Amino acid sequence: VDIAVVEVGLGGRLDATNVITPLVSVITSISYDHTNILGNTLEEIAFEKGGIIKPGVPVVSYPQLPEAEGVIRDLSARRGCECIFVSPNQIVERHSSITVQQFDFSYNGELYDNLAIHLPGKHQLLNAACALSAVMVLKEHGFRVDREAVYEGLDKARWPGRLEKMWDDPEIFLDGAHNPSGAQALADAVKLYYPDTRVHLIYGVLRDKDVDTVTQTLCSIASRVVIARPDSPRAAEPEELAAVAGRYHKDVTICPDLRKAIKHELDLIRAEGQGDQSNKGILIISGSLYLVGEARTILREMTREPSLQP
Predict the structure, then answer these.
(1) For every residue of 17-46, which 3-state class applies, written as one string?
(2) For residue 181, how many other CB atoms are within 10 A of its CB?
(3) φ, ψ of residue 172 in degrees (nearest 5)
(4) What is d(CA 172, CA 153) in angstroms, rounded to the nearest whole number?
(5) How far apart are CA 25 and CA 61, in angstroms?
(6) What b/e string do you get for 227-251 counting C-beta neighbours within 10 Å, with b at 16 or more?
(7) CA distance 131 to 282
(8) How is residue 5 annotated by DSSP?
(9) In angstroms, what is the C-alpha Rg of the chain?
(10) Count of C-beta atoms within a 10 Å radius of residue 164
(11) Considering only CA atoms, which of 175, 171, 172 is closest in space to residue 159?
């Protein structure tokens, strides 16, 4: 192995990955998640995440809210680390669609023009900029990374279960948006790419998440909401989740069986689009990676059933 990308399991400060001294540390977007373990404020969570910052090792960070940024800068200064915060100004967007985003990226005078990623959502441009900045740091430390490899690496990047398009007709997306920032990223992407489209949402979440915030955010983009149950002992009960969703949406139904829920919504979407393709809705399955994983399996099986093929 020439280069290993090692992902922290949870938090950072007490994670097993601290046995490794990296060439560069990368901190992605910090938001409220696992608050029962990491803390109830962004400062506390950032301190836990900042545990991966090692003495003298460069740090690359996603643009953070001021509370989190201050903690990362302080930890970096105390540990003698170069601290590089990605800036939206490093990105010039050329094209954006649900299937491809093209952009230019600059770093200390070096320009990579017309890069392409196949991960939708504006936040993915900043995620790409974090990866690119880490590559630039490696190059500054003597590693040879060809420009062609940078272009090819971004072009081939895929993220199953994150705004993943499973079908084309009707369009079906899977997104394991299980925390407020993930839910907001999904909502922003739907508003950007499908501003006037009916959205059928199949939704299930774990009860130890920020259920109210995630539910409110996802309900804001839905034309109708179907509550299903993730395959986990930590799943929120459908009746309880429906009561929460009912505070933010008028059309909420319960169908705990995910396969039945998917088939029913597909029938509705197809009925909506008969004779008027412009009126055809899309289906989004979201709220839990457990739910998304099960849906992925079901949809793959359904593509092998002639009567249900997209």
Answers:
(1) HHHCCCCCEEECCCCCCCHHHHCCCHHHHH
(2) 17
(3) -125, 130
(4) 26
(5) 8
(6) bbbbebeebbebeebbebbeebbee
(7) 31
(8) -
(9) 21
(10) 18
(11) 175
Each residue's pLDDT, cut to its tens digit, for the chain (310 residues) gives: 888 999 998 888 999 999 999 999 999 998 877 767 777 899 999 999 999 999 999 999 999 999 999 999 999 999 999 999 999 999 999 999 999 999 999 999 999 999 999 999 889 999 999 999 999 999 999 999 999 999 999 999 999 999 999 999 899 999 999 899 899 999 999 999 999 999 999 999 999 999 999 999 999 999 999 999 999 999 999 999 999 999 999 999 999 999 999 999 999 999 987 766 667 899 999 999 999 999 999 999 998 765 555 4
| Dihedral, CA of residue 46, residue 108, residue 158 and residue 1, to nearest 10 | -90
275's tokens: 């004779």
In angstroms, the CA 55 to CA 199 distance is 48
Distances (CA, A) of 208 to 66, 239, 255: 27, 16, 21
158-166: Cβ within 8 A, 24+ apart: 158/118, 158/119, 159/119, 160/296, 161/289, 161/292, 161/293, 161/296, 162/119, 163/98, 163/119, 163/120, 163/121, 163/189, 164/296, 165/98, 165/99, 166/296, 166/299
Residues 6+ away with beta carbon under 8 Å from 4? none
Tell me the two tokens of residue 62.
Answer: 């996603």
- Please state the φ and ψ torsions of residue 29, each to the nearest 5 degrees: -60, 130
Residue 301 buriedness (CB in 10 A; 0-12 / 13-18 / 19+): exposed
Q: Which residue has the tokens 């793959």?
A: 300
**Residue 15 half-sphere exposure toward CB, CA atoms < 13 A:** 21
